[in-house]
């Protein structure tokens, strides 16, 4: 068993180092460990357990929310939200950067995907921000950090995965718990944005005229209604999270084809194909991560690792800090869904040992991973925005450090005051 556990971790780490895709690394490491540590009858269960990881009804929500995000991004919603945000913020120093953050927050309530939001907002905002005097590196950094809030603001794909992997956690409570920390993370981006813009003179106050508020609001209403429909339907009990995803898809196509009338049948087909490709990647990762988790649990690797962490200290605060540091490093390298899949079999027993609230802990993990999404070297959100801005990732580091600091402070507030996350689900009567 000890040898098999070393094989599980060693093969996975080696494959990641040489650049193997995360799904392949997880699957091969799990299969190799099972082959070495267990008998042939158990080895025959590899295929069954791999399939069982995705044969779960709640997972249907993931491809549907991916499709929802793509439909709204390509139907012109993002552009109309930009105009509406400009009408609210008006021309001022740092105004366009604040607009980008606000649009990312709203778009996060439609897709639940940081990289998708980063791509949609960066494509629209970066050219305008450049004309207003914002450096490319600064613009890419602000949008990447703002888009990371999508992992917190419902419907978050990562939180859906968390609710499936952690028994007893209500997804509705998790969605409600992520809302206030998500807005807090947005404020944590806006504050340094205003400070840095004024300090360096980014964005002259008269760079653009303020759009008329009411016409801008009318144009943005279809997009603004999407989060209301999703969260309102969940709160009222009208539909489950999976059904909410299906309703959101139907509403998105209605907005693009009937209301805005800028989606042709070819556009609709392209959206379906692209979302299917993205969803397939996510579900393959989930499937093979399930094999990895099953191997680790069966061989006892996660139990031993959890016990080793618990032996470091009996102080829950010290252990939590250690976990947050590990998750932050992981977030710089891996995407949020993969981190949940890999670490939860290890972290849930630790959370239970210290009697941490699992809803709060899931949101805390999401905040930590959100910071990793815009922190080099990998930084999935920053990779997208830097590519669109045509700047190297290393050029964004001076600006990213400010955003890491303020987002870290926001996460510290949620650690010190769990009610920031838990008050809303408690008020709505959800089980936490």
UniProtKB/TrEMBL annotation:
Name of one Pfam family that matches: DctM
Keyword Cell membrane among record annotations: yes
GO cellular component labels: plasma membrane
MF annotations from Gene Ontology: transmembrane transporter activity
Subcellular locations according to the entry: Cell inner membrane
Membrane topology: Multi-pass membrane protein
Protein keywords: Cell inner membrane, Cell membrane, Membrane, Transmembrane, Transmembrane helix, Transport
Transmembrane segments: 59-83, 95-126, 138-162, 174-196, 216-234, 241-260, 280-302, 309-331, 337-354, 361-379, 399-424
Main location: membrane
Domain TRAP C4-dicarboxylate transport system permease DctM subunit residues, every copy: 9-420
Domain of life: Bacteria
InterPro entries, A to Z: DctM (IPR010656), TRAP_DctM (IPR004681)
PANTHER family tied to this protein: C4-DICARBOXYLATE TRAP TRANSPORTER LARGE PERMEASE PROTEIN DCTM, SIALIC ACID TRAP TRANSPORTER PERMEASE PROTEIN SIAT-RELATED
Record family assignment: Belongs to the TRAP transporter large permease family.
Quaternary data: The complex comprises the extracytoplasmic solute receptor protein and the two transmembrane proteins.
Protein's job: Part of the tripartite ATP-independent periplasmic (TRAP) transport system.
Protein name: TRAP transporter large permease protein
């Amino acid at each position: 068993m000890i040898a098999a556990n070393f094989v599980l971790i060693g093969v996975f780490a080696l494959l990641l180092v040489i650049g193997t895709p995360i799904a392949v690394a997880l699957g091969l490491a799990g299969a190799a460990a099972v082959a070495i540590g267990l008998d042939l009858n158990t080895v025959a269960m590899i295929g069954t357990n791999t399939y069982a990881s995705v044969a779960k009804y709640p997972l249907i929500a993931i491809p549907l929310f991916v499709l929802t995000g793509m439909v709204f991004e390509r139907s012109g919603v993002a552009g109309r939200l930009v105009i509406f945000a400009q009408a609210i913020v008006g021309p001022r120093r740092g105004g366009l950067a604040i607009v980008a953050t606000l649009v990312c927050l709203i778009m996060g309530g439609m897709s639940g995907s940081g990289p998708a939001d980063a791509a949609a907002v960066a494509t629209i905002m970066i050219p305008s921000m450049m004309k207003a005097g914002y450096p490319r590196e600064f613009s890419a950094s602000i949008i990447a950090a703002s888009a990371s809030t999508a992992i917190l603001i419902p419907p978050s794909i990562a939180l859906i995965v968390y609710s499936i992997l952690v028994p007893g956690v209500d997804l509705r409570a998790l969605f409600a718990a992520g809302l206030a920390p998500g807005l807090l993370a947005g404020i944590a981006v806006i504050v340094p944005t205003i400070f840095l813009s004024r300090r360096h003179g980014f964005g002259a106050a008269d760079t653009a005229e303020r759009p008329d508020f009411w016409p801008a609001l009318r144009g943005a209403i279809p997009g603004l209604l999407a989060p209301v429909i999703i969260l309102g339907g969940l709160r009222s009990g009208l539909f489950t999270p999976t059904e909410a995803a299906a309703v959101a898809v139907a509403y998105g196509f209605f907005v693009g084809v009937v209301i805005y009338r800028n989606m042709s049948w070819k556009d609709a087909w392209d959206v379906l194909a692209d979302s299917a490709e993205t969803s397939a990647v996510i579900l393959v990762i989930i499937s093979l991560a399930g094999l990895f988790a099953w191997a680790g649990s069966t061989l006892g690797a996660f139990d031993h690792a959890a016990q080793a962490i618990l032996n470091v200290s009996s102080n829950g605060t010290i252990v939590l800090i250690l976990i947050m540091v590990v998750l932050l490093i992981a977030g710089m390298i891996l995407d949020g869904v993969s981190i949940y899949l890999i670490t939860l079999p290890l972290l849930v027993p630790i959370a239970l040992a210290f009697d941490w609230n699992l809803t709060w802990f899931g949101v805390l993990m999401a905040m930590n991973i959100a910071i990793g999404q815009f922190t080099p070297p990998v930084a999935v959100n920053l990779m997208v925005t830097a590519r669109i801005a045509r700047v190297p990732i290393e050029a964004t580091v001076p600006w990213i450090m400010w955003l890491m600091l303020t987002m870290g402070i926001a996460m510290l507030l949620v650690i010190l005051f769990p009610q920031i996350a838990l008050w809303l689900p408690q008020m709505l009567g959800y089980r936490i």
